Amino acid sequence: MKIDILTLFPEMFAPLEHSIVGKAKEKGLLEITYHNVRDHAEKARHVDDEPYGGGQGMLLRAQPIFDTINKIKAKNPRVILLDPAGRTFNQAYAKELAQEDELIFICGHYEGVDERIKTVVTDEISLGDFVLTGGELAAMTIADATVRLIPEVIGKEVSHQDDSFSSGLLEYPQYTRPYDFRGMIVPDVLMSGHHEKIRLWRLEESLRKTLERRPDLLDTYEFSEEEKLILEKIKKKVD
User: Which pLDDT does position 233 carry in this prediction?
Assistant: First the structure.
């Protein structure tokens, strides 16, 4: 995958040089380039201006963005504008983006962007109902969530298939050594070696956690018959 990021602060992206994303670059599975849009401004690195019609704040000008994108050699990129009014990002969206060969991120700033910038945008994405000082943190978050889903980035595919939201449910509780930590003991079923009992325990705990913490996820979840029975049992215990 090739990722190009248009930003006013390329130095903010140092975290993407480490951990899983950094390793993906080392393996040759990922190429990331950071473009300082000030370098392509026609007027002495001037990238913002006052909005026509008046109003508070400044807007990111169209010219530096257009010229930066034009200099990126991309064949059919997905062009993403980080914007609070965009579609809310989630795991399903990350899976969708992970199928692409080329992504371009535009990090917004100030009070917003010149509306004409959106004519080259394919996706407007938001992390949620809050406002950040710029699109850099959002771009890093989306890039990280997307890159880890690229085949071969994570050693075993099952490593991310069991993540929260990957299945549509929150992830079940997990434990490691020691068995007894300050009086807190690992559930006996996990020590049993009985794979079917462990599977059922994990499924029940996943459903229980989702019901307790994110019941909204269950509204659109496609239940198997087994899951329906387990959820009914959980609800009866709660009642």
Answer: 96
